[in-house]
């Protein structure tokens, strides 16, 4: 797994292999990426796409086993880390060209019943941790004159939804943080952007669909049609790989003038 070297930078335990690794060909060859929450869902898809385009990827997740599986598949490395342990992150320096802030959780409750501990936990993981990882990664990006920060926000970073007080406010905060990083990083060749998916087909959303189907006594297709996709123009869920390909493009050299932006991928939901 990843460890801190003598000068405090995070490096792989072994140098990326030159012959069979994904890091020797493709538009992202030679780039080092860190993807938080990379063991599952959108994060795993981002890790796969970045690796497919040639990057060497560190899969950071508290799910050590899941991170190991993805890392092995893409010939990257796993970093087993509970990102809620923020004290450790304050001391960290990261050697990365591409930072994907993706790890996230959801709690759905009306405000008056919302557990303050859940609120703080969500804000820590989804707003403070991206700040701490930017803080850890920016010095080496500035030194190289290149960096790509990609923040996995949500349509709920731009528009609200009832019962998601912590999630909506943390994602709105992430939008602001991303823009500040864009302004500070611009002169140093560092871009910072958000991607804003609608419902993506991840384990999290598939469970929600199954729950709703049981609750309403309807089929899972009917849940999609009648509940989740009523406002969407493209009548299907977003696939994780689609988010991954947008993230990989934002990480590319061609996207150097794209910064401080937020890229909605919601099948037209927010156009309505
Ligand atoms: P997921 O549950 O499939 O994956 C989240 C990953 O984050 C998991 O591997 C989990 O172990 C990891 N994680 C959670 N807490 C952690 C911690 N404390 N330390 C380290 N790792 C931790 O979720 P997903 O649906 O892929 O969501 C990923 C991101 O995409 C989140 O930020 C989410 O808000 C955002 N998003 C999801 C959707 C959707 O419909 N699924 C839509 C818009 C935005």
TrEMBL record:
Give me the ranges of the annotated region Disordered.
1-30
Report if keyword Lipid biosynthesis is assigned. no
- Please give the PROSITE patterns that the UniProt record associates with this protein: ADH_SHORT (PS00061)
* InterPro entries from the UniProt entry: NAD(P)-bd_dom_sf, Sc_DH/Rdtase_CS, SDR, SDR_fam
Oxidoreductase among the record's keywords? Answer: yes
Q: Name one GO biological process term.
A: monocarboxylic acid metabolic process
User: What residue spans carry the Basic and acidic residues bias annotation?
Assistant: 1-14
Q: Which Pfam families match?
A: adh_short_C2
**What's in the keyword line of the UniProt record?**
Oxidoreductase
* One annotated GO molecular function: oxidoreductase activity
**NCBIfam families named in the record:** PRK12429.1 (NF009093)
The record's similarity note reads:
Belongs to the short-chain dehydrogenases/reductases (SDR) family.
Q: What is this protein called?
A: 3-hydroxybutyrate dehydrogenase
Which species does this protein come from?
Answer: Arthrobacter subterraneus
